[in-house]
Design brief:
It is a single chain. Helix 1 (21-35) links the parallel strand 1 and strand 2 (39-45). Helix 5 runs parallel beside helix 7 (207-226) and helix 8 (230-259) runs antiparallel to helix 9 (268-299). The chain has a seven-stranded mixed β-sheet with strand order 3-2-1-4-6-5-7, sandwiched between helices. It is elongated, with a radius of gyration of 25 Å. The chain has helices at residues 21-35, 52-56, 73-83, 103-111, 128-144, 177-183, 207-226, 230-259, 268-299; strands at 8-14, 39-45, 63-66, 88-91, 116-121, 157-160, 188-193. 47% of the residues lie in helices and 12% in strands. The longest helix has 32 residues, at 268-299. By secondary structure, it is an alpha/beta fold. It folds into two domains: 8-226, Spore Coat Polysaccharide Biosynthesis Protein SpsA, Chain A (Alpha-Beta Complex), CATH 3.90.550; 230-299.
Length: 313
Amino acid sequence: MEQNEPYLSVVVPLYNEEGNVAELHKKIVEAVTKIGKPFEIIFVDDGSRDKTVEIAKNLSPLNLIVFRKNFGQTAAFDAGFKSARGEVIITLDGDLQNDPADIPLLLEKIDEGYDVVSGWRFKRQDPWSKKIPSRIANLLRKILIQDTIHDSGCSLKAYRRECFQNVDLFGEMHRFIPAILEMDGFRVAEVKVSHHPRIHGVTKYNWKRGMKGFVDMMSIWFWRKYSYRPLHLFGGGGVILFTVGVGILLWMFIEKMFFDASLAERLWPLVGIFFVLIGVQLFISGLLADMIVRSYYQGKERMNYTIREVRKQ
């Protein structure tokens, strides 16, 4: 690390947090100054309509990124990650519910050799209207994504900067960053952190974000299981449907030839033809998806694996 390069980059997305931004900055500075290593603080304003930006412009030290409009928390995190220069990137929410004083807990785990450390709001201070959807989402995440953490919704996390060399974030995927990185072989851990009730402002969570999060969860499920082998999903399904369709048509042929059955008013021949056609289309789709995935990795000059270390002794 060069002498002027920060060791820590603290990335915080903000959206209409005028009542929290100054106090949050103060708490972050106090927490990271005690660590005794160079740091930078990056606030990303996600199109706030209140005085958040005006207040943030008077804070120092601070790198401030201001979006032209509201693009969402995931986009704000992505912009912060791309701007960060530190060896370790810390993220937290801008609503003062995450406690910057817990940052050393995350760094202790990072020092143990982990690449990602996620905060676990063990005693969560949110209303049940927010806890219940979150618990349902966590259950679905455990079933579909099968990651190793308890609380993917907690924004208080620590990452080594190399985690984001080949990661671009879209939609509402910020909740699933540890799962995405774990799929690439990065080592993930979690620590219990404190959580405070919101005092200023209002929560930005609503049912629309929940639906977007579910759709993104399905996308990550697909990438987790079939991103390197889409032909196994589409092609496998196509072969099954094609086989069923051929079986139906073969049975209809036997009934017609040997039992002189009338097929004119029966639905099964159409069902068999439908299954055969859909099976062929799925198999072709699998082949095309396989070609696209290969082009994707070749275009990024990477392969479908990651190397942690190369040693010559």
